[in-house]
Specification:
The complex is a heterodimer of chains A (242) and B (482). Chain A is mostly beta strands and 242 residues long. Chain A contains three helices and 13 strands. Chain B starts with a helix and ends with a strand. The chains are: A mainly beta (242), B mainly beta (482). Chains A and B meet through β6 of A and β1, β3, β14 and β18 of B.
Chain lengths: 242, 482
């Protein structure tokens, strides 16, 4: 019996996932689809009270390609960004009818008054910028510590990510910069749509500003062949037909 | 009856279609620092609508209302009492109205027709290649304002070549810029004075000219045609364009002068000229423009370069001068009529701009641009191309609610020429101008901005900005969009 228990412990440790493997599974569960399209309600608030509500649409494919466009209110309508890679980002300003290239380093800055940076909005890619290790594990969750890679330009030095074992979806992320907790991302609800999981209600809090942004996703459509439809292009970004 | 049916159909189509409405209101007051007069008192409202007529077809409409009270000290009682425009100087105008169709006729072809603002050129706000949107130079704090024009605008995106395409624009009617006319008078006065002064002792001429303008005839030959090819290669976004058009800034085609020459007899040592009457006529000329622009993100900043070569048709100014010279013996007046013709535009000239911008962590933003040839400059004498350095530094606080902006322009009347002078520093001082603009923007909620700023301009010689010296001011602006 002792031998059997010893065997179980040994094999259990052997089959325990490494931090990188857990992170890979998290990314796969969040971006396993070929593309995604969603309408989102964006709620901006301060000190616990709601200040503003907006509606935006997000189109994404893979880990990098994204288009984000505001639908309402009317004073921000049609403002949008197109992300093709880390070094290729565009913003469309309807007042000037102009698409402007924005520098890659701007991706760490807040997107249009929200608490999400350009890098974070609609994106869940961490392994490119962070090394991962498991720091805590229980029956239901795994806690990862993501440490910034030396060549990364992320504004965070460390992220503590709590992952649900059942579906490898993140529950909470604490983002640190030089050991100071800057932002907290809480996944409030998740939903399985067909073969994929979606984070349908998330909340990002900026602790230094006491400001928060909630995103509620609605009308999520997966795998609709967005790349073939020319969605990730300046033409689509400028187009007013969506 | 027909009109009634048309409007009923139009309005009902908007009711049943998906329509977004947006209203923008702004009020700008600029107060002179030298004499407390109102340099600007502009109140504007735009009513904008976007109607989705089908999946690929949209209609945009924008009406502008401008209220600019400009009380005059002396108005006839008849006008004051009978003409309401003196008390309520309102202008209502169609800003934009166009229909845009994606995948028009076939996939990849986008078509926009109507009065529209067309994006042309990659540089920040100042675009030498933009020959499609006439400039509105009426507001010193916003010299990047452009006027929408009626156009047929076709863009074709090549299949299998992502983001490569060709654009073709036809503007049936040439557009005209809004210009600060007193600068034309000022420059013309200086030009005439310089010309007459060559052979005389003194010239008495003021800047009160009377002028007429001859607009281009509305026919096919005066329309604007422009084409552009755009794409991406090696991390660069680029476009090459060509346009044939009527330049939207008029030139002085004819000058009429009546001079009185007082000659010191019998020595004839002095000739003093008094200009008795003066007027000019203006017209528009044709030109061909060939340009290109590139844009690149270098990782640490974004770089933009834009260059336009202008090849003008030959343009002449004809001066008709009547000289009246009184002579003592026998007492009489000799009247001489002189006609002078001068070619003022013939040679090609090049305008260019290079700039970079960068956002920093902590809410900092910087933008620098160096330009050769701006505004009304066309390469000849008073309109010769000048050199500019512009910078814009911004710092945001409290999540963009509060913003400090420092904008400046250093302008010199030909940078290279300054180094040809023996005293380079003096040459720069005598032929340069600077403008500084500090602004505080407070945005308590999205769509509502309060601005307060101070703008100072100083300069000497023929530097273009030196003409704006009287525009030192403090200003307040409130704008809202909802």
């Amino acid at each position: 019996m002792k031998k059997f228990i010893f065997f179980l412990v040994i094999t259990g440790n052997l089959f325990a996932l490494t931090g990188q493997e857990v992170l890979d599974k998290v990314e796969k569960s969040l971006t396993g689809f070929s593309d995604q399209m969603a309408t989102c309600e964006v709620i901006l608030g301060e000190k616990g009270s709601i200040k503003e509500t907006r509606v935006m649409k997000i189109w994404s494919a893979g880990k990098n390609k994204r288009v984000v466009k505001f639908v309402s209110p009317s004073n921000v309508k049609d403002i949008g960004i197109l992300v093709l890679s880390d070094q290729e980002m565009y913003i469309y300003l309807p007042a000037y009818k102009k698409t402007r290239r924005i520098e890659g380093s701007m991706k760490n800055q807040n997107f249009q008054g929200t608490d999400f940076s350009y890098r974070e909005i609609g994106s869940y890619e961490y392994s490119k910028d962070f090394d991962s290790k498991v720091i805590k594990e229980d029956d239901k969750t795994i806690q990862l510590e993501l440490t910034k890679k030396p060549d990364s330009d992320s504004s965070y030095t460390k992220i503590i990510m709590e992952v649900e074992k059942q579906n490898f979806l993140p529950k909470k992320l604490e983002m640190y910069s030089n050991n100071e907790l800057k932002k907290v991302l809480t996944i409030i609800t998740t939903e399985k749509k067909g073969n994929y999981w979606a984070l349908t209600h998330i909340k990002m809090e900026d602790l230094s500003k006491n400001h928060f942004t909630e995103i509620k996703m609605k009308e999520i459509i997966f795998d609709s062949g967005l790349e073939g439809k020319g969605i990730f292009s300046e033409r689509f970004l400028k187009s007013s037909s969506n | 009856m027909k009109r009634f049916i048309f409007f009923t159909l139009l309005i009902s189509s908007f009711i049943y279609a998906e329509t977004d409405l947006n209203i923008e209101i702004s009020s700008f007051v600029g107060i002179s620092l030298s004499n407390s007069s109102y340099l600007y008192n502009e109140n504007e409202a735009f009513f904008k609508s976007k109607t989705k007529l089908s999946e690929d077809i949209n209609f945009f409409g924008s009406f502008g209302i401008n209220y600019t009270p400009n009380p005059q000290s002396e108005i006839s009682s008849k006008d004051m009492l009978e003409n309401s425009s003196y008390l309520y100087p309102l202008t209502i105008y169609l800003d934009e109205a166009y229909v845009s169709a994606n995948n028009f006729i076939f996939d990849g072809l986008d078509f926009v027709v109507g009065k529209q603002r067309i994006s042309w050129g990659k540089a920040d706000k100042i675009n030498p290649t933009d020959v499609l949107n006439p400039e509105d130079l009426s507001k010193i704090t916003d010299l990047a304002r452009k006027i929408p024009t009626f156009a047929f605008n076709l863009t074709y995106y090549f299949p299998f070549l992502n983001d490569y395409g060709a654009q073709f624009v036809w503007q049936p009617y040439p557009g005209q810029s809004i210009l600060p006319v007193r600068f034309i008078n000022e420059k013309l006065t200086s030009r005439i004075k310089e010309k007459i002064s060559e052979n005389v002792t003194s010239v008495d001429i003021d800047e009160n000219w009377t002028g007429e303008i001859k607009y281009p005839e509305f026919n096919l030959t005066n329309s604007t045609l422009a084409g552009k090819i755009f794409g991406k290669a090696f991390g660069f976004d680029f476009s090459i364009n060509v346009a044939r058009r009527q330049n939207d800034i008029p030139y002085i085609s004819e000058i009429y002068l009546e001079n009185s020459n007082a000659i010191n007899f019998p020595s004839m040592s002095e000739t003093n000229v008094t200009v008795l009457s003066k007027s000019y006529k203006m017209a528009y000329h044709k030109e061909t423009e060939i340009g290109f622009d590139i844009e690149k993100d270098w990782g640490i900043f974004v770089n933009r370069f834009e260059l336009a070569i202008f090849i003008p048709d030959e343009v002449k100014t004809t001066a008709y001068t009547t000289v009246k010279t009184p002579i003592p013996f026998p007492p009489s007046t000799i009247v001489t009529n002189i006609t002078n013709e001068e070619v003022i535009l013939k040679e090609p000239y090049v305008k260019w701009i290079i700039g970079l911008d960068k956002n920093f962590d902590g809410g900092w933003y910087i933008n620098f641009q160096i330009a050769h040839g701006l505004f009304m400059e066309r390469g000849y004498k008073e309109e010769r191309l000048q050199d500019y350095l512009t910078f814009n530094i911004e710092k945001s606080f409290f999540d963009d609610k509060l913003k400090f902006k420092l904008f400046g322009i250093a302008n010199t009347d030909n940078f290279i020429d300054r180094f040809k002078d023996s005293d380079i520093i003096k040459s720069f001082i005598d032929n340069s101008a600077i403008m500084g603009n500090f602004e505080i923007v407070y945005s308590p909620i999205m769509g509502l901005d309060f601005k307060a700023g101070i703008c100072g301009i100083d300069g000497n010689g023929k530097a273009t900005l030196a003409s704006y010296k009287e525009y030192d001011m403090i200003y307040l602006e409130v704008s809202s969009s909802f």
